[in-house]
Amino acid sequence: MNPKLSSVATRCGGILFNLWILTIASFGIVYLAPGDPVLKLLRIDEVAVTQEEIAALREELGFNDNILIQYARYLGGLLQGDLGTSAITSKPVITELTQALPATFILSIVSLAVTILVVLFSGTVAALFRRRLPDKIIMAGCYLGSAMPTFWLALVLINLFAVKWGILPASGWKGGKGLWLPVICLVVAIAPPFIKIFRNRFVEISDMGFIRSARTRGVSERLIIAKHITRGSLIPVITMLAVSFGSLLSGSIVVEIVFSLPGVGMLTMDAITNRDYAVIRGVILLVGIAIVLIMQLSDLLCRLVDPSLRRQA
């Protein structure tokens, strides 16, 4: 088989396998949680019902069937785009997710873009001025940012910018102005470790022999930094960003709750509070699919940035 076709087939097989594991995890969430799945799904734990009514509901929902048959039925529904119905709103879960997804998507993409810019600028400055004052200030800021809980930082920003100074809104979008504080929270939470990774890799590549040779040949420093050092330093950052994408989503959930943003975070919180397992299943699938796709995208970006990876593939 053609090596490229073999690589594509292997990649597609890995994606399908990961998605299959996701379906098992989302299906099993109802059974792993304590209590009767029928009572949980129907939210009638505190409602007086007879055993005959419970038995009838269990039969109607198919819980008397073999678990493999139940899973096959669930998987068949997923393949048809049926994620179930919310026990809270009686709306299809797919509708709930599509309504909440835009806010989370905008917050995550803007935060990720700002994070990359901050990492590139701060990491480059720290590396160029290594062991000097700018480097020490940036590294101290990284340690401080890593130590700040996102929830605490969000409350501090609200108190300063919304309550005391009245510059930015404390909650909601407010025509886009409400995006500033959540983005700051996420960037402060995400950027510090990547700044250190980028800075250290930048310093490491700067000391390599081929960089010294390029300098002795008279190649401009700007070209060396842009074409060789920065591109090489981005590889571990891209990889770690993909691996940490789950942390970005979990951080966005906390931020959405604090700033009352109508995203997947608020939807998840409401679903957990009200034991709406159909929505929880949908969120697990959504987050899992996003992580799988981001991992694949990061691999492609690494190959794009570093041509040697394409040759190895």
Secondary structure: elements and pairs:
Layout: H1 3-32, H2 37-42, H3 51-61, H4 67-79, H5 93-128, H6 133-147, H7 150-164, H8 180-206, H9 209-216, H10 221-243, H11 245-258, H12 264-273, H13 277-305, H14 307-312
Helix pairs in contact: 1-13, 5-6, 5-8, 5-12, 5-13, 6-8, 7-8, 7-11, 8-10, 8-11, 10-13, 11-12, 12-13
What this model shows, in words?
- Helix content is 78%, strand content 0%.
- It is mainly alpha-helical and 313 residues long.
- It folds into 2 domains: 3-80, no CATH class; 93-310, MetI-like (MetI-like fold).
- The longest helix is centred in the middle third of the chain and has 36 residues, at 93-128.
- Residues 101-302 form the ABC transmembrane type-1 domain.
- Belongs to the binding-protein-dependent transport system permease family.
- This is ABC-type dipeptide/oligopeptide/nickel transport system, permease component.
- It comes from Corynebacterium kutscheri.
